[in-house]
Amino acid sequence: MAYILQVDFKHEGPFGNEMVGAFTDLANSINEEKGFIWKIWTENEDTKEAGGIYLFETKEDAEHYLDKHTKRLNGFGIAHVNGKIFKANDSLTTINQGPVQ
């Protein structure tokens, strides 16, 4: 059973290709996190928000990463980070082509 971590926070930029340039090293480092399976990066320049949807092998792995990432974002001056963890329903997700297996 996999676990989804949903994270969002206020973000003044960069966005788009500039975001790629600024966060490629971070993206590569996330691949090394314990239990990490994948991440979808999210951004909304109109509302000045960013974040991601992650898939982890265990709830503990997701919790550990959320704690680590929250501290990192706080260090960047982002005071409030929304983070939620959900158990993925593999059977229903598979019906809708979700990559949980």
Characterise the protein shown here.
The protein is an alpha+beta fold and 101 residues long. The chain contains three helices and four strands. The protein has helices at 16-30, 59-75, 90-95, and strands at 3-10, 36-44, 49-56, 81-87. Strands 2-3-1-4 form a four-stranded antiparallel β-sheet, with helices on one face. The longest helix has 17 residues, at 59-75.
- The assembly state of the depicted protein chains is single chain
Query: Describe the biggest sheet?
Result: 4 strands, antiparallel
Order of helices and strands: EHEEHEH
Low-confidence parts, pLDDT < 50 over ≥5 residues? none
How far from one another are the termini?
9 Å
Question: How large is the count of helical segments?
Answer: 3
Extended strand count? 4
Specify Rg, calculated over alpha carbons.
14 Å
Strand neighbour order, sheet with most strands: 2-3-1-4
- What share of the residues lie within helices? 25-40%
Which structural class should the secondary elements be placed in?
alpha+beta
Our estimate of the beta-strand percent is: 25-35%
Mean pLDDT: 95
Q: What would the principal axes of the Cα set say about the shape?
A: globular
